[in-house]
Amino acid sequence: MMSVTKQEIIRSAFQLFKKKGFLATSIQEIAEDCSIAKGSVYKYFPSKEDLFCQVFDECQTAYFDQAEHLKKTETGTPKEGLVKQIVFRYQYFIEFNRILVEFTELPITQDAAFHPLRNHVRGRMMEWHKAWLLEVYGSQIEPFLWDLLFIYRAILKDYLLRILYEVKPLSIEDTAWFIVDKLDALAAHMKREGSKALLGQSSYDAFIHMGSEDWRRDRGQAAEELLGRVTAALEVWPSGSVRRKDLQEVIHLLGAEIAQPQLKRPLIQALCAFLEQEQELKSLVIQLKQIVLSERD
């Protein structure tokens, strides 16, 4: 039996994950590809999840290395540079789709080792996007930078899925120019109209630390705030004291249930459904329910 290094196992796993994806690839296949026993893989990686984390990290690192090189060798305008970055991003993510895209629907997203890695990559990607937006549009976008950043990220993500899964594939180059053209229009409009920013640094921080202890604490505080706003809305309730009393009792029950370490999800959903019947409370209650139930998933 040949002696195999850790890096050779990673290289084999990289190719198999790239070809077949996380779920369809087994440790046995990786071992066979390396001509070693299955147990030899576990000497380096306690689980398939740990091995995937290593592959995912190397794949993302390679992406940023190549993106940085592309930026350094760019000779056109900043806008042309951004277009080329989008084209490269789509080309790369299509090639490594099974590693960089498909994982979002898999249980590995909840893995203790993978979660902080994903947050690290998410933060690095957002910093990269932010730097490019400032490079192209300058300080004029600073008043609404965070909103534009999240809009840009959402557009990139959605059009990647369109490119991957549309029956009639979109042109990568046309899509990149389309996105930048719409960013131009959006940035100009927000500046001209003096658009009030909805998002700020705190929204960005919460996004890149999603799932951390700080994030969970902030989510708990957000739930308390929303519950308080629902309660305050009832203080000026226009529909009569009897109905208001019923709603206050339901809110009291909901608050008590939210405070429990183990949630009774059907009960919370039922209490929220009762409150959502009131149009004045509906949006607040939907937000509260989403925060409370997703926090404990």
Can you identify the CATH class of the largest domain?
A: Mainly Alpha
User: How would a crystallographer describe the biggest sheet?
Assistant: none
Summarize model confidence as the mean pLDDT.
87
Approximate helicity band: over 70%
How would the global form be characterised?
Answer: flat
Overall number of strands: 0
- Helix count from the secondary structure assignment: 14
Keywords: DNA-binding
GO molecular function, one term: DNA binding
Organism: Paenibacillus durus
Protein name: HTH tetR-type domain-containing protein
Can you describe this structure?
The protein has helices at residues 6-20, 27-34, 38-44, 48-72, 78-95, 97-100, 114-137, 145-165, 172-193, 201-208, 213-235, 241-258, 265-275, 279-295. It is mainly alpha-helical. The protein has three domains: 6-45, Homeodomain-like (Arc Repressor Mutant, subunit A); 50-204, Tetracycline Repressor, domain 2 (Orthogonal Bundle), CATH 1.10.357; 213-295. Helix 11 (213-235) runs antiparallel to helix 12 (241-258). It is flat.
Helix and strand topology:
Elements: H1 6-20, H2 27-34, H3 38-44, H4 48-72, H5 78-95, H6 97-100, H7 114-137, H8 145-165, H9 172-193, H10 201-208, H11 213-235, H12 241-258, H13 265-275, H14 279-295
GO molecular function: DNA binding
Pfam family, one: TetR_N
Protein name: HTH tetR-type domain-containing protein
In short:
This protein has 297 residues and is an all-alpha fold.
